[in-house]
Amino acid sequence: IVNADPGATCDEACSSLGLACDETQLQFVNSCHHMLRAFPCEGGCGHEVGDDLPAYVHDVAMATAGQCLLFDSGSPKCDRGHP
Length: 83
Hints:
The chain has helices at 10-15, 32-38, and strands at residues 45-48, 55-56, 68-71. It has 83 residues and is α+β, with helices and mostly antiparallel strands. Strands 1-3-2 form a three-stranded mixed beta sheet, with helices on one face.
C-alpha cells in the first residue's frame, strides 16, 4: 500500500515513487486488515460508497475522522483523492 497525502490521488502517490496505480488491484487492499498495515485507523474501519476508497480520513473536522474507509460497492479509481 502506498500512502497518499490528504487529497492526493493514488495516481499521484504512486507516480511520486516511480510506480503506477492499478485500479484492478485496489479491491485487494479493501480490508481493515490491510489498511491497518499502512494507517493507524484509530477510529476503526467503516464502510462507505465512493470511487475514492479505500482511504484513511486525516481531517479531524469530518465525522469519519481517524477511520479507514472501505468500499462496499462500485469501482475505485486511481485518479480520485479523498479529502
